[in-house]
Amino acid sequence: MPKRRRKQVLVSANEAPGKDAPGWWKSAVIYQVYPRSFADSNGDGLGDIGGVRARLGHLRDLGVDAIWMSPWYPSPMADAGYDVADFRDIDPVFGTLAEAEALIEEAHAAGIRMIVDIVPNHVSSEHPWFQAALASPDAPERDYFWFRPAHGDHMAGGDNMAGGENMPTNWTGEFGGTTWTQVPDGDWYLHLFTPQQPDLNWEHPVVRAEFESILRFWFDRGVDGIRIDSAALLFKDPALPEVTDGEPHPFHDLDAVHDVYRSWRRVADEYPDRALIGEVWMPDVERFTNYLRPDELHAAFNFDFLGCAWDPALMRACIDRTLEAHAAVGAPPTWVLSNHDVTRHVTRYGRADTTFSFDNNLDRTPVDLELGTRRARAAALLSLSLPGSAYVYQGEELGLWENEHIPEDRIQDPMYARRGHTRDGCRVPLPWSDDEPPFAFTEGGPWLAEPSLAEPSLAEPWLPQPREWKDRTVQAQTGDPNSMLELYRRAIRLRRAEPGLHTPEMSWLDHGPDVLAYTRGPDFACVLNLSGTAVPLPDHVSPLLLSGPLEDGGLLPPDTAAWLRLRQPRSTQRE
Ligand code: GLC
Predict the structure, then answer these.
(1) Is 440 found in the same domain as 414?
(2) pLDDT tens, position by position, 223-266
(3) Which of 299, 329, 445, 498 has its CA 20 to 30 A from that of 421?
(4) Annotated catalytic, 296?
């Protein structure tokens, strides 16, 4: 009996993780490219598709399974491209549609899938629909948005004026500030983000049909997945009530949104092996996993994990919560440490308060970057060995920290004016080589596909890079066995080769309350020491990968993780 069971494990291990296996998103390593900061191929100081194509080798060497591209569409860039004027084209800053198609093809040839970012909650105020809506109060396009007259019926009390005069509601926007702007004919329109991002009316069939057509547009071009921006915000209570404790929220997570994702799922299912991945910020785990029911989205970002403190009990509880909630709906968990909206985790983990939330602004509180880096290395081994898919935000593999010293006159993030916190510090252009800025982010060097296109003089990168990043360039770290880059490369390679990491199985080992230790299959274990003292490792035949050196006697130091071989895999054991 036990013999047979072992055999079954071997069979499933041998099947995985082929890149062509159905359900690639269930265990993929997905790398987020923030195109304006990845690599600049034309010397204007802003990254572009040419830069991604030229640097694709970096992603192939890293071993990622897929790229998620943050928005690359035509945009006035009021919110760095999350204000889209045309979902079927590419902003000239980034290149052309033909270049995007070439990138999709080249990524596929390198064995890398492509995910594009769709923003359904709002469009740019320059979008033709909104321009038409502005042109006349009678334009049918007004109904595609949330236009409301001043002094709506529900305003009978007349005291709801905090944001100006006669605003339809007193809601606070997602970036802070008010959510309504008045147009010259007296009506107000709703924008949960900036005034340049008017919210769409998802009750309208034209809006629904348009987005299904946009999905098909990109699926037809071969993209393998869609990342859905602000996925829980689409619907609003048409009665426009104020936000009141204990009452249903008027614009977060309304039930009607699920019907949209069911129809998107039907569209995705018309194509082989396409994935829908939701950006769903939701404290309630059950409400969160509603988005992952079998006929809705394939996956969603785990912000619970991202925001969790560097604390053994809290992390273990978060992992358990994640696994249980996802198992209940049959969806793969995801593990996310950073993205383009949040403080880089090297910085977060180096602070006294290691949590992340938009509500606790910890900017410029003291940071121990050495400690943050040590923990970030250990966190990489954690997130890359838990069951499910893992996300890597560009620069995380280089151990970049938040640039908290961007001069105020260079800050571009619209959140800054409203909340006093900027997301620009995690969006700083990547350092590739050389000893000083721009670290070959923008250059006319030999790697350029067409060097003749380079501007004679190169513009400064759009955000300043810390000079200290000279040790964090791809070039400086390549071949250095102690570098963050080589740690990520080795971890991703091992993840691919290690049979235990291809099973959904995970079991906690009891190694004391301050150590997270678990097995994946019979041969593999991960141990993360979150206590203040070095601890012995569980019995094993050899360490596979360490986030930092062991102490004398083979003890695992604090804030360090190890991947262990527990016994020789059965295929290499003597019968
Ligand atoms: C999402 C994006 C963020 C953007 C916002 C509005 O949260 O990740 O960058 O500002 O939506 O589109």
Answers:
(1) yes
(2) 999 999 999 999 999 999 999 999 999 999 999 999 999 999 99
(3) 299
(4) no
